Amino acid sequence: MNINIEHLFTIKSEQEFRRLVLDVFRFQATNNPIYGQYVQSLKIDIEAIEQIEQIPFLPVEFFKSFEIITNNQNTKDPHSFTSSGTTGQITSKHFVSDSSIYQKSYLKAFELFYGNITDYCILALLPSYLEREGSSLVYMADDLIKKSKHHQSGFYLHNYDELILTLQQLQDKKQKTILLGVTYALLDVVEQFPLFRGGSNLIVMETGGMKGKRKEMIREELHSILCEGFGVKSIHSEYGMTELLSQAYSKGDGIFTTPPWIKILIRDTNDPFSYLPAGRTGGINIIDLANIYSCSFIATQDLGKTNPNNSFEVLGRFDNSDIRGCNLLVQ
Predict the structure, then answer these.
(1) What is the C-alpha to C-alpha distance for residues 299 and 275, in angstroms, rounded to an integer?
(2) How many domains, in total, are found in the chain?
(3) What are the pLDDT digits (tens) for 78-118?
(4) Of 193, 214, 244, which closes a domain?
(5) pTM of this structure
(6) Domain contains 126
(7) Are residues 141 and 51 part of one domain?
(8) CA–CA separation, 131 and 134 (whole Å)
(9) 67 lies in a domain?
(10) Could you tell me the CATH number of the domain that includes residue 160?
(11) Torsion-angle region of residue 43: left (phi > 0), alpha (psi -120 to 50) or beta?
C-alpha cells in the first residue's frame, strides 16, 4: 500500500482524516515489525479494524527499547532524535528515515497557527536542549531560524543580557518576534531583568518544563509570572516530544490545538482500550500521521483532557514516569 505523503498534510475533513488513519494503520501494522508484533500480541485482526477507536496505540516506552521503523521506508536524509533525560534514565530514540517529512510537518503547523515564517524574527532560548545531542526541538528551531531569513534570528544559551538587548531592539523596530524558550530559562530571564517589558509584537512561547532546574509550578502561576515579566498578555506553549514529528500549540491558558493531521484521544486510566468523553481526565493518546515511517499511534504517559471544540489540555504525568517532553506542567 502506498501512502501519499502530500495527502497527509492537506486533510480537509474529519471523514478524510479517518479514512487516511485506517490506511496508515494497515500500512504500519503490516510493515512495522515492532508495531506489527504488538498488534498481533493483542490478537487483533488488522482487516477487522473499521474505526480509529479500535486501533491499538503503542506505549511510548517502546521507543526506549526498540527501533520503531517500517521495513519499506523511503530513506531520504535519515536522522535519529533522542529524548532528554536525567542521569541514569534510559532515553527514547526516534529513527526518522525521511527528515523532509518532519520539516514539512513543523513548517505547515507553524504557518497554520502563526502565518508566514518570514514575518518573524525567531529567538530560541533552549539551554538544556543545546547542551546535548539529538534534540528534535533544536533541529526544528534551527530550521525555523534559517527560514525566517531575519538577520537577528538565532539561538541563545546563557547570554541573557544579549537576548534582552536583541528583544529591545526588535521591539523598538516593531518587528514581530517569537521567543521560544525552555520554561526554567524564561523564568531566569525575568528574574535577572525585571525592568524589561515587551510589546504587542512579542510572542513568548514556553516549552520543555523545568528539566529538574526548578520546582514545578502550576500553569496559572507560571504564566502570570512570565506575562508580567515580559510585558505580554498571554504565554504561548508548544507541545511535542521526541517520538512525534508534529506539534500542537497553545496561544494562552494552556489550551492546545492540533493541526489537521493530529488527533488526541483520552484513554481511561483503568482501561487503556476505552476512551473518555470531553471534559474527563485520562491518558493522552496521539495520532500523528506525520509518523508515517515509524508509528502514528502513541499512548503517552501524559494526563489530559479534551474539550468539546477538540482542543486539549495537558494536566500532568502518570506517577513514576520520566519528567521529559514539552510543556509537561504540574496542574
Answers:
(1) 12
(2) 2
(3) 889 999 865 457 899 999 999 999 999 999 999 999 999 99
(4) 244
(5) 0.92
(6) yes
(7) no
(8) 10
(9) no
(10) 3.40.50
(11) left
